[in-house]
Each structure stands twice: as C-alpha cells, then as structure tokens.
Amino acid sequence: MKKAHNFSAPCTSEPVELCRLALVALPYGEGPQKVMPLGLQNISAYVRKNSEHTTCKIFDYSDLYTSDIDELADLINWAPHFIGISIYSSHVQAAITWGKTIKNALPGTFIFCGGPHISLAAEDFLRASNRTFELAIRGEGEHSTAKLIDVFNNTHTQFPRKTKSKKHIYKNHFNRIPNAVWLTTSGKLKESYIEKIQLPTADWENPLLEYSSERLQKLYFTDRKDSKQRKAIALTSSRGCPLACSFCAIVAADKEGPKWRAIEATTLVSWIAEAYTHYSFEHIYMMDANFFVRKDRVLEFSEKLYNLFNGRVTWSSSSTVGYLLKLQSELPKLVSQGLRLVEMGIESGSQSQLDYMNKRVTVQNNIDAVRALQNNKIDVGLDFIMFYHDQQKREIIENLVFLVKSGLTEHESLDHYFNIMMLYPGTPVRKNLERKTGTKLDLTQLPNSREFIENHEVYNIYTAYIDNFAIPLLNQLEQAIESNIEKIGTHTSLTETAYHSLLNIHLKHMPFKVLWWLCHNTDKTTEINREPFFINYVATINKAIADDKPVNAPKLKILETPTTGSGGRRGELIGRSL
C-alpha cells in the first residue's frame, strides 16, 4: 500500500505551526476499566512516523465514569487542531455526550471518530451525534488519520491563517481520505474511496513508544510465582482472530481482508527492546485477541524475550482453547521463560451453548485447557458467558458443573458468574435475533440482553440472581473477600490466618450456591432472600466487613483483560456502583 505523502511547508519567514492531534479514549459506558488505548497507540505511532509538523498526544479517560466530564480540562487546555475519538458499541451515548462537551469548549477544533463501532455503523453514529463528529473513519485508522493530517498541513500552507472557513476547506478534501464517511449539510451520506481497510503488518509502527503521551494509565502485574509486583506495559502484536465466534464484536468489525495477521516474533521483540531504552518495566501484557494462533511464533517470541532480558521480564497473553492445547506440551518451557497468565476464551461449560457460539471445541477440551494452565501454575484469566438470551435452564446448570470439574469455583474474579452475552452490532447472534423478532435493534446503544431471554425459567433465574443477589450484595461480598485477604497478609497467628483463608473459600462459593439453588427452585426464585443459607451468607458478609479497617498489606490482585464477547457485570451491574 502506498504510504501517506508528507507535505512540506514552503520556505517562508513565517514559522510553521505544528498540527496538534489529540487521540481520545473515552469511558466505556460500563464503568471504569483499566484498559490501555491500544488502537490509539498504534495510530499515534504511525502518525508520528508518517506526518511531518505534527504533535500527537493520547488522552486516556477510559478509567473514568461517563459523568466525569470535568476531567476533560487537560484536553481542552491543550486546544488541539484535531481530536480523534475511538468509539465502541458499549459507549455510544458516552461518546456523543463527551463529544458535544468538547465541541462546545473548542468550537474551532475538528472532531472525527473511528473504532470498532464506526466500522459497523458509521452512518447511524454520525446522525445520532447530530454533526458533533464531522468525519468518520472505517477500518484501521492509521493511514486515514495520517492522510487527514496531511490535508490540514497542505491547506494550512495554502491559505492565510485568518481564513474563517477552514472546516469547509477540509470538507472539500474529504474524498482524498481513504475509508472516510461524512454527512453533507443537507444530511446526505458521502463516502470516499476504500483503500485496504486493514493496514499491512509491514506498515505497523512500534506502539510502545507512545507511553509518553498524556493520561496513559500505569499498569502493574502481580506475579504470584515470584511473589512480586511488576511494572508493566501493554501492546497488541496481531489483529483480528482466525475463529468466527457468533457473539464476537472483533470478528464483526474486522470482516474485511484476512481474519488474522501478526508481526513476526523478531519484530515484536525488537519493539520491546526499543521500548526498554525509554521505560522501566518487568512485565508485558500481550493484549492480542488470540496470541497463541501460531505455535512457532509463540515459541520463538518466548525464547527471544527470555534471552534478551535473561528472564527478568515476564509476560502474559491470550488464547482460545484449541490453540492453547496445541501448545500444552510446551507450557513448562514457556513458564520457565516468563509466561505467567493466559486469558482463556472458555465462554461456556455447556456443549449446546458452545455450539451456539460456534466455539468449535468440546466441554472436555475446555476442562483440559484450564487444567493444563493450573498444572503449570499459570494464572487463568477467565472469559466466560454464564447467561445468554436463547438459553435453557439445563445449560446454566452445565456451566456450574463445568466450574466444579475445572477447579474454578474459587477463581479470583467473580465476574464469570454474572456475565450475559452482549448483542454487538454485526454479530450473527444479533442478526439472528433481529430476523427472529422482525425488528432492527437500535445501533446507538447496546440492548439489554435480559429483555430478549425467551425461556421463562431462565428469565426468572437471571432476574432473581441479578436483582436479589448481585446488585444489593456483590459489592459487600467482594469487600469482605478483599478484607480477608488483607487480614491474611497481616496476621501472625496461624489460627487467624487459617480462619480467614477458609472464610474466603466460603464467601467465594456464595455466587455458585445461590445460582445453583435458583436453578433447582425455579418456583421460588423470588424467595431466595428468605432462605436460611442466604440469610447466613449475608450475616457472614456483614460480620466480615463490620470491623473492616484499612491496612497496608499488598493486595494480590492480577489485572485481567476484559472479554470481547460478554458484558453482564460490566453492563447491568455497573449501575450498582454509580
């Protein structure tokens, strides 16, 4: 693909004004999440390399609530010429709200958008935002953003600084920006030409050098094997996924060209080596949707990383079950070379549910994959969808049985008990639902999956579980567990340590016990809070946090990357903490 042309300013006595580009990651609309703006880092790195006279900064607000608009002061004070905002289907309304706030504060700034949701629903978003966003870019945004900046640089050198209608000048050149979509003043949709929506790997730049940008969150990894907390960095080394899970937003948004492509292991390690000359870190989060796709690449990366740092830098990654099992015999070597955590796309413990999701694995495959990680003392980041709208009660029970068989009933996070399948635009499950109901779902917000649960028993179970247990009690339950962990870290008495350790096991089993009871007492789901075991659990929670005092013990908590297919905990339940 032909790279973006670099426009040079003519020789004048007037100094060249740098184009200021702000790339913004907004709150996800599902509560604070510690997720790096990986796509924006890729765009920033590409623009720095391919566009002259440009200053680029990343402003990461993803760890905030939608209501935290006052945090925009640093962006507004910088007064950029361009603001590019990445849009996800989960935060369309947040993006519109924040976009309008930015536009009111910076009326002369050009605001454009891209991201997964734009690739699926650019026209609907532009109309819903009421022209807050003047341009939308489909597909991967590096090349198109660089071309947009080049248009600015070129017109800036051709027209006087006091030109009042620069935005009109830019709009006359929108057709020069590949994969661009915009609305005319009459409301007509206009599109430019399509040019390789997927950027070739040879044109990818090192995103790790973008940590010097504004408001990037600090990452840490708690290494249980070495009993230390490690300062971390995060990046993606591949894009897309070779699988076609029916619920996955990545597959839907990345439908053009090859499904999966990646930089070679040598290039990846060279990126990390280059970053190490600028920053101090001891752990690398490989945030790829599916890092384990090529066995030879994984093994080469692990060995070269180990040799480069002599084992001082550890790493974590992601995988689906089939690819993990192909590397099962190599796991001991990978652990010795620094592998510490694998985020596993398990998704279900029910075979019929796995088939519905087009996972192409068996329940036994899932058990074997989890056990392989556990046997090698590799932490498991669990992606799991407990509920979905076409579900039968039997499948919920099968999910719970799977958690027992795979040894996950005491997993650190409790999210997997509450996740419900999200209906992302463009996915087969959403299209099937729309055909079945004869309606077109609104593209400006993710639908509440609860409303589409067909089975009466499943609906009652889910409703009772969320409304009578999760929303009123989950915060306190997690607080009690966290309090016990802190007490275990500070007690010198073996008796007290043993007591709080056993108490945590008891508390961690509570979501399982409640859901199991609901599945076997569907005629009494509204009576769960009157059951003796439930009352005893509530009393235990209250007692655990009654004398809770802050302590300085380190919290053994591993950052787990969020699943791309489930919501639930980050959807319905976020309302409990707002």
UniProtKB/TrEMBL annotation:
Q: Which residues form the B12-binding domain?
A: 19-159
Gene3D superfamilies per the UniProt record, alphabetical: Cobalamin-binding domain, tm_1862 like domain
**Methyltransferase as a keyword?**
yes
Q: Which SUPFAM superfamilies match?
A: Radical SAM enzymes
Look up the domain of life of the source.
Bacteria
Keyword list (alphabetical) reads: Iron, Iron-sulfur, Metal-binding, Methyltransferase, S-adenosyl-L-methionine, Transferase
Residue ranges annotated for the Radical SAM core domain, each copy included: 227-457
Under which name does UniProt file this protein? Radical SAM protein
